[in-house]
Design brief:
about 160 residues; mainly beta; Immunoglobulin-like; 2 domains; four-stranded mixed sheet; 14 strands; about 0% helix; elongated
Length: about 160
């Protein structure tokens, strides 16, 4: 699953980020809590997050919501949020937790990655991957071995 996994450890009172699976466009943000036991005590705990893109807030929440109280939770994520990450945009993810009237905050700054290179011969130009030979109009597939476009057979009764 593409995305950013954020974990707060009650053991060392620190936030931990794993953005090693961050990808172009579709991603998931997860926020989980871990402790020495199977459950984490959430008495009096509040937490939240914000995501900024090029300096503008695009996502965020303060939890738990008004009128809701978390008692305990397993190590499964409490937050699962869809993210659309654009290429070469600057992002800042800030997370915080308040417990015992102490705020622990942490920030991850990152740049949106480029889409995966479709073939080794393609080059990155003007924010897109470009084949060595321009694609003809219609249904064509790139053949990396031949370094050319191969016309796909018509899918009768559908027309090109």
């Amino acid at each position: 699953m593409n995305g950013i996994n954020v974990t707060y450890s009650f053991v060392d009172d620190k936030w931990h980020f794993d953005d090693s699976l961050l990808a172009f466009q579709q991603n998931i943000l997860t926020i989980a809590f871990v402790s020495n036991s199977d459950y984490s005590n959430f008495d009096g705990v509040q937490f939240g997050y914000t995501l900024e893109e090029n300096g503008s807030k695009i996502l965020g929440a303060d939890l738990p919501p008004e009128g809701i109280r978390y008692q305990q939770v397993s190590k499964s994520p409490l937050v699962t949020e869809s993210l659309l990450i654009g290429y070469n945009k600057l992002y800042k993810l800030t997370v915080y937790i308040t417990r015992y009237n102490t705020i622990t905050e942490s920030t991850l700054e990152f740049t949106g990655p480029a889409p995966i290179q479709p073939f080794p011969s393609w080059t990155w130009q003007d924010n897109t991957w470009v084949s060595p030979v321009p694609k003809p109009q219609g249904p064509w597939d790139w053949d990396e071995k031949l370094q050319q476009w191969i016309r796909l057979e018509s899918n009768f009764p559908y027309l090109d």
